[in-house]
């Protein structure tokens, strides 16, 4: 889950940052364009006013121009300011108060009658007779409009980013929830719960369509698996009866044959082969029974420490007879929920493999300790030896049925397969690792908080 949450956070951050950047660029472009439009309109009004006054100056005399300036200043609501100066710099008309300016465009500050300064845009023009006309227009309103637009844009950007973050977080939360549901069902199916299915809502969205497709696939796979298990179980059941009858006839023939005769020896070898076939069928039926999952309904608290300890004591003498050392490290009070016989089968199979495939003088270690995950208590069962071990490339294959490693042996390759099936049915995991030298089989099972009484 942390990985998925991290991915969703990255997606949220990416889209939010991208959204904010695009919004910022659009806003900056709109602001710059608006700024140019405002300045163009402002300059156009100043140019028009300057042309009108220049026309008065060219058609009339100085008195007519000064009268035109006086009438404009007397309107009171005029947004323009005027200044007419003589060639020697003397003020001839207009109420604009500003510093002396050269010909052309200027951004100035002029003072109103109250002495307050205001920003303005001005155009200085040379008139006939050496006169200089300055026409200025306040830029307070455009500046205020620009500032308000900037404030509104910043506020809108913050709100949009906040909405994007909240929306992305809700979207990510929904995605994580749906993915967690699919992952939980997939994990349950991988643990052997073949009837687990992904819930489908009434929205019929893409997730529902995916869930329906996956459920259909799981239905088909479950049907194939159940059919395969049924066929295997039926074959094993059907063959056991005639093989048992064959064994009985072979035993009768052994009794009729003379003791120590070649015929008796051949019959004994045949009976041994028949027993091997029967043990193979028994193992196949046991694996099919475990993988079917029906045994989980009968799971009960099992004092795993006591069970493992009793098995270790029973195998200690066999290990000693084979000149091998069996060392135990068992933590008291470990309890798991499961089937005691199946859990015992795990230890029996692994100990027998260790005794079968290790040379005399080998050391076999059996340990049962608590797992390190405090949030989800577990029990760790480990059986390790210093024998030939299993090559890393063969370890995954060793857990499959009928897989026998290069070390040989007289088995059918079902021991580890049965162990893996039992572990999976108990919601655990199994790992084959290098014991340097030898093989280490580590099994992790969910642990109950309290021991059984």
TrEMBL record:
Residue ranges constituting the HAMP domain according to the UniProt record: 173-226
Keyword Transferase: yes
Molecular function terms from GO: kinase activity
UniProt domain Histidine kinase: residue ranges: 234-449
Signal peptide feature range: none
A Pfam family recorded for this sequence: HATPase_c
Subcellular location: Membrane
Enzyme Commission number(s) from the entry: 2.7.13.3
PANTHER family referenced in this protein's UniProt entry, alphabetically: HISTIDINE KINASE, SENSOR HISTIDINE KINASE YKOH
Protein name: histidine kinase
Organism from which the protein derives: Sphingomonas olei
